[in-house]
């Protein structure tokens, strides 16, 4: 009978997702629940279903990677971004390079574009938005949402950038144009460079300490000097100096200036 180690190897081959980098107890519990849901006897039988049925495989990836998100998640942090972080970054240049890493269905990069549009013209906004999961990226590109995602959306942005359509909400093309969506696996793909702001929230909590450390180093390399990393509300970086960061505001870390 296949054990969890064997299952992880097969999942890596099948999906490119390395489950060893995700916290084991939590991941195993989630997978066991899925195995029960599909009425399978264990890893072997479930793997067989995953190989046979594309839809089950897609659901598996979506479930594992936990895609929950919303516009302006943790609103007070978006306030700090608008009032403190963007002005700080814009002191030096007019066009910022921004990366929303693990963006899920796009709520986060669209929120970024909306906030920044209060300060700079839309045609100067360029945001790279990435995720490992192709399904969520397709939804992000479509830009169509239910009310659940919109709870924290300020009314001014709703009026400016959202259209109600068939009981849902559609993002306007002018905001969509600010974002480039791409598939990217934080655990194995090369990172972009020259970023002024990296937003990576509510995904590192699922990774092992080792995987997190490597990612912090890579984020640091991906940022320009004094660039900012914005993390989720349970993801404060202990000993951020070890990775070349200084704490700025809470949940915001600034890359230390390189010594020349
Ligand atoms: C909980 S959502 C967070 C979305 C958004 N950043 C937020 O805070 O609302 C986590 C996202 O991380 C993505 N993810 C999981 N593992 C990943 C990996 N190895 N590389 C890139 N994205 C990953 C998932 O597909 C999912 O969309």
UniProtKB/TrEMBL annotation:
Keywords: Methyltransferase, S-adenosyl-L-methionine, Transferase
Top-tier EC class: transferase
GO biological process, one term: methylation
Domain CheR-type methyltransferase residues, every copy: 1-258
GO terms, molecular function: protein-glutamate O-methyltransferase activity
EC number: 2.1.1.80
Known catalytic reactions: L-glutamyl-[protein] + S-adenosyl-L-methionine = [protein]-L-glutamate 5-O-methyl ester + S-adenosyl-L-homocysteine
UniProt xrefs under SMART domains: MeTrc
Superkingdom to which the source organism belongs: Bacteria
Gene3D superfamilies in the record: Chemotaxis receptor methyltransferase CheR, N-terminal domain, Vaccinia Virus protein VP39
UniProt xrefs under PANTHER family: CHEMOTAXIS PROTEIN METHYLTRANSFERASE
Name under which the protein is recorded: protein-glutamate O-methyltransferase
Organism: Cellulosilyticum lentocellum (strain ATCC 49066 / DSM 5427 / NCIMB 11756 / RHM5) (Clostridium lentocellum)
